[in-house]
Backbone:
């Protein structure tokens, strides 16, 4: 069983649409990260959230950490083809502990 | 800095052969991580080093896998003997203490 679940597993949308992907767990995390991985490349860190209820924005991307620090969401506004990739969340239960990765959401933004 | 450098980018080998994957971390980073990524299991941590010392190798699948870090600028992951189920993309990542992790481009291993 996965410590972190991500949904949906796959998502295909048209350019300009909005979307939200989710990362859920029954565990409480001290911090949670979101990565984007493009085909043939390694994951690239987008954001780290550490406070329950925290919201961070990175241009068209909005990240929210759940109040109970068990879940997180990533919302993309006006998706672009360059947003295509695998979105991974990773959580650390204890401070200083290694991050465990979720299975990812594979996003395809069509022109 | 050129980032984390992995070699080779692609490796195809026959079952039973020894495979060595190489990683050069970002200069100044004191943590180095080896991950394996497959469709079935996602991204899994195999082992990580701090200041060239292996800290946690609980993710290493079995004795066929070994990793070394002889100095701060080089690490290897060796599989001997290799099996078809070892086919995956292997990533190396490095970070400084408390800093973000930077991943290499990965080595795609195919064992036939």
Residues:
């Amino acid at each position: 069983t996965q410590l972190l679940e991500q949904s949906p597993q796959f998502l295909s949308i048209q350019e300009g649409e909005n979307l939200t992907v989710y990362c859920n767990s029954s565990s409480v995390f001290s911090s949670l990260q979101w990565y984007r991985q493009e085909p043939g490349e390694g994951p690239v860190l987008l954001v780290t959230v550490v406070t329950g209820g925290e919201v961070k924005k990175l241009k068209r991307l909005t990240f929210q950490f759940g109040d109970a620090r068990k879940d997180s969401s990533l919302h993309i506004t006006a998706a672009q083809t360059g947003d295509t990739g695998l979105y991974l969340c990773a959580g650390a239960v204890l401070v200083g502990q290694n991050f465990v990765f979720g299975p990812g959401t594979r996003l395809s933004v069509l022109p | 800095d050129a980032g984390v450098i992995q070699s080779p980018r692609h490796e195809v080998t026959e079952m039973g052969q020894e495979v060595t994957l190489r990683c050069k971390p970002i200069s100044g980073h004191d943590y180095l991580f080896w991950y394996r990524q497959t469709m079935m299991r996602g991204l899994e941590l195999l082992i990580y080093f701090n200041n060239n010392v292996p800290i946690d190798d609980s993710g290493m699948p079995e004795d066929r896998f070994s990793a070394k870090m002889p100095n701060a600028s080089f690490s290897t992951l060796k599989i001997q003997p290799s099996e078809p189920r070892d086919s995956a993309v292997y990533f190396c990542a490095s970070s400084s203490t408390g800093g973000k992790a930077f991943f290499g481009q990965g080595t795609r291993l195919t064992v036939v």
